[in-house]
Queue: 3 jobs
Job 1
Amino acid sequence: MPDNPKALISNADRYEPTLGLTTQDFVSHYDTAMLPARPRKPKDKAKVEVGVQIVERWILARLRNHRFYSLAELNKAIAGLINDLNTRPFKKLDGTRREWFERLDKPALRPLPTPHYRPR
């Protein structure tokens, strides 16, 4: 669910924004769906925004006093923290993010189509 940018949306209707031709072609190529958020409706993306906020707080808070001298070194530190976050139990739900991904999302994933998407 992206915001409602002019580059993706051809008709920014208040209730049903229409995807542009290139965007629709991209979505069709990968056999997926894109539901843009309505203009000035932050509640449309609340769950996504909270997920980003959790990751930012969990990772940035732990790395704020570290100094990294290469991108590889930073990526290694982030990968370890992501693994810790994904195996940490939820506070209000049973299980972990990893368990929920394995049970709900992973079975629905498919390999990306070949060839990769190329804009017209």
Job 2
Amino acid sequence: MSEIPDTERPVDVLIVDDQAPFRAAARAVIARVAGFTLIAEAESGEEAVALHGDLRPDLVLMDINMGGIDGIEATRRITAVDPATMVVLVSTYRLDELPAGARTSGAKAYVNKDELSPRVLRRLWADGGDPAW
């Protein structure tokens, strides 16, 4: 059984996506969630793993498709070192079309980029991820 995150303390967030427009959209969503603070952005899986090691964010919004280390492998590396980090995979896949390994990567949830919202982030954080995941 995973621990449910403490919803009373600030939540440090890392955005990982190789596309600047999505990083900007994710920044706008995070800015609208009380208690959530963007601490860094990464453009690659390699950069995400390095930043995680330095900053230890509470929540990582992780794109799946990136050059080099993809989001699934970066998630595996991050959660192997720090299982308490909540990684939420974000991409444009339908849930039934997720790549192999997405569900076993250590991520706590998947959100389609079109559905990312303050309400969704608050719910996932409060629930410790997606119970159906």
Job 3
Amino acid sequence: MTSETREQVIPGERGPLEQIEQSIMQISWLAQRQFMQLLDDDRFRLTLPQFYTLLHLYQIAVECKMSDLAEATQQSAASLTGVVDRLAEKHLVERKRHSSDRRQVMVVVTDRGRALIAAIKQARREQMQAALSHLVDQEVEVLIQLLDRVLLGMTRVLEPGESGHWA
């Protein structure tokens, strides 16, 4: 798409960039809504902060200090305490004391927590497969390539350049 094509918009009609922006916004909104519904399903019953806390612990696969967990999940220490309390009540995480500093509280994902994350990931894959089932393999490949390029472009917009200006 050339700059001429992008700029030639007939009043009252949406240009290609507006169409792309609207599609990305709608996909983002629908994906978030779908994911929130999935987490609220009787099989899972997790809030978004609980999911991201559990996911982080699942990914690191080792004990984590509460302060590090709060930073990694971008939650306040007070909020995280409540989140971890609820995850512990569901036997998805365990609290432990640090081996050398008994004042330090450590959190680790349990086998039950790992199984729940695996089940959520599988359910999400099934949702995505259903959403894309009308595409043929070649269309899926093209979609992957285009999405990768869009993500790269969107990432560049977020990265400040060396001069302090946005790339």
